[in-house]
Design goal:
197 residues, 21% strand
Length: 197
Amino acid sequence: MAEWLAKCIVLLGAGIGIVFWYLAFRLYSRMQTLPGKLSGSAVMAGRDITAGMKELVSFVATHGRAHIVGKTPTALELKLGGADFSYFFVKIAACFESRAGAAVFHTEADFQKVDKPFKIVMAVLVFFVMPLAILGIPLAVWLLAVPASAPAVRWQVVQVVQIVNFIWEPFVLYAIHRRYRMMGQAFLDNVTAVVTA
């Protein structure tokens, strides 16, 4: 392999890595701007608070990912998440109140327990792991393999492909984080539709 071709391969690999790092940085920035809480309220036409509360408890009992943490006659506190609720969960608060003779249903989802660990891991990946790999691997190949006179050693520039091992993690992490947030939003929408119907 000619030296110019080896240099082109290294530069191409580093360039592709930098593009993926930029995309991962954009996902990190988007994750930072997401609101920590989502809330909503709806008027329950023709229903009283007791009937609404029964409907809410019934819905939560049939929903496999929600568990009741606290309950009062007009409010419910829930944990929404996967099978293991020890660390990643969405905290849901639902309550009823009476305003001007009409029952109003309020919901709020707190994503803090989901957002914080994902944001920390994403920051470590985007600001430490990815730059180290995207700059370190091509630099090592540039300094060690490209100037080598032996063709077998120069062919090691193809090892720049190892960058792939470091560029996929932020995208998977973002997808999992987005899934948790979508699950919380969908639960709020569904519970509001069931209770106010």
